[in-house]
Amino acid sequence: MYDCIIVGAGPAGATAAYHLSKAGHQVLLLDAAKLPRYKPCGGGVSPQVAQWFDFDFSPVISVKVRKVRYTFNLADPIEAELPAEKALWMVRRDEFDYFIVQQAQKQGATLWDGTKAQGIENHGDHWQVNTTQGPVDGRFLIAADGARGVIAKWLGFTRQYKLAAALEAEPRLEVPEEPVIHFDLGLLQQGYLWNFPKADGYSIGGGVFRSGTQRKQDLRTPVADYATAFDVDASTVQHFGHPIFIWDGPQVLHTHRAVLAGEAACVVDPFTAEGIRPSIFSGMKAAEAIAQALQGSDTALTAYTHTMNKEWGEEMRWARRLARLVYQAPALAYKAGIKRPSSTLTMAQIFCGEVSYGEVAHRAIRRLSAGMLS
Ligand SMILES: Cc1cc2nc3c(=O)[nH]c(=O)nc-3n(C[C@H](O)[C@H](O)[C@H](O)COP(=O)(O)OP(=O)(O)OC[C@H]3O[C@@H](n4cnc5c(N)ncnc54)[C@H](O)[C@@H]3O)c2cc1C
Q1: What's the rounded Cα separation, in Å, for the pair 206 and 239?
Q2: What is the CATH number of the domain that holds 38?
Q3: Whole-angstrom Cα distance, residue 199 to residue 63?
Q4: What are the tens digits of pLDDT across the range 253-276?
Q5: What is the pLDDT of residue 162?
Q6: Nearest 5 degrees, angle CA 274-CA 280-CA 281?
Q7: CA of 165 to the centre of ligand 1 (A)
Q8: Where are the strands (E) in the chain, listed by range?
Q9: Is the pLDDT of residue 361 over 80?
């Protein structure tokens, strides 16, 4: 009998496994994939996550990037530079995620990779998870199985999630000595294109982050056009599409002896599509809640729902408003917002958790509304 079974060894599940094991609990971490596994992702990570762990992430940071370059429809470029302490981490997800898993194993977590959860049974005081390696029992369950996961459904959640879509390719190429993060607004409707550098290549992709619009859009052509701008022939590189579950308002994230974490809890920022930091945050908070529940707290899981809705959801309320404004009128947003020299620093401060999204969104909405009126 494990204290907790965690399904999914992405950032959310691995983080929960790390913190629960460190607190002395018996944890089983399951992943359908053999680790390390590939996850379609730009791999841009906020340095804020370092605060939530007591180990050093340096071995899996491919590059730290201070330069950001924007274009609108491949033209009208603008460049900004971040202070060193706000440099964004660029990671390869197979390395980054597995690194956290390995830290959890060092704390005593048991890993069953290549093991798929095929069903769950509620046995009152514990959950039985039926896996491709047979059944296994845990007093608590964390569903951290990502946007393609099914555990939330099995647990009886019938939420209305907002679906976004992204496509990316990761050509391995020689990159310039001074790495630069690139974004383009305008070439893709209701989203953006990115080129995130790594030490040995790029992650080039595009995402459509307003629900309902993603099905109508062809992502492949804009991603290919964008890749050409960096002398990459997209037809020679494999492309990976993936859904994204964006935050769409307050949600219940707990049920009987179980919680949802990471993208299974629809944590992704609807403006930036940032999912790694909130997945890690929710994994950490889920671990805290389950540790308290294991010590007999009856309210810990409810408190987890409140914490996520308050500490992350409140922020996302503003991110959603900002997304609506920016993606509806990208040309104006580019001119009146993104091109402002202070904008990149402000976004980096949000990304680093130093200023509240609400504060900044208020300012930006006022400015953009004034721009629209004039
Ligand atoms: C193209 C793209 C680009 C992105 N770029 C960025 C970015 O640059 N920065 C950023 O912050 N976010 C980015 N995101 C979002 C980010 O990738 C996700 O939000 C993040 O991976 C979610 O982490 P997670 O731990 O919840 O789930 P995941 O990382 O998806 O992990 C879930 C795990 O669960 C396992 N699993 C699923 N079902 C089962 C089962 N039945 N049994 C056992 N295991 C199972 C899977 O194998 C998987 O390993 C991007 C997303 C996409 C699609």
Answers
A1: 11
A2: 3.50.50.60
A3: 6
A4: 999 999 999 999 999 999 999 999
A5: 64
A6: 95
A7: 13
A8: 2-7, 27-30, 44-45, 63-65, 67-72, 75-81, 88-90, 110-112, 117-122, 127-131, 134-143, 162-169, 180-185, 191-198, 201-208, 239-246, 254-255, 258-260
A9: no
19-51 tens-digit pLDDT = 999 999 999 999 999 999 999 999 999 999 999
Give distance in angstroms: CA of 229 to centre of ligand 1: 28
The residue type of 338 is I
Q: What are the backbone dihedrals phi and psi of residue 137, each rounded to the nearest 5 degrees, phi first?
A: -110, 145
Distance 30 CA to ligand 1 centre (A): 14
Give distance in angstroms: CA of 369 to centre of ligand 1: 35
Query: How many angstroms does the Cα of residue 299 sit away from the middle of ligand 1?
Result: 29
Domain count, the chain: 1
For every residue of 131-193, DSSP letters joined together read ETTEEEEEEEEEE---TT--HHHHTT----PEEEEEEEE-------SS-EEEEEESSSTTEEE
Query: Which structural domain, as residue segments, surrounds residue 97?
Result: 2-373
Mutate to test the pocket of ligand 1, among 41, 127, 244 (most ligand atoms within 8 A of CB): 41
Torsion sign, CA atoms 79, 165, 230, 188: negative
Task: List all residues whose CB is within 6 A of at least one atom of ligand 1.
Answer: 7-13, 30-33, 37, 39-44, 116-117, 144-146, 148-149, 166, 168, 205, 242, 244, 262-264, 268, 273-277, 279
* Residue to substitute in 28, 37, 39 for testing ligand 1 pocket (most ligand atoms within 8 angstroms of CB): 39
Q: Which amino acid is at 356?
A: S
> What is the atom index within ligand 1 of the atom nearest the CA of 15?
25
Atom of ligand 1 nearest to the CA of 35: 49
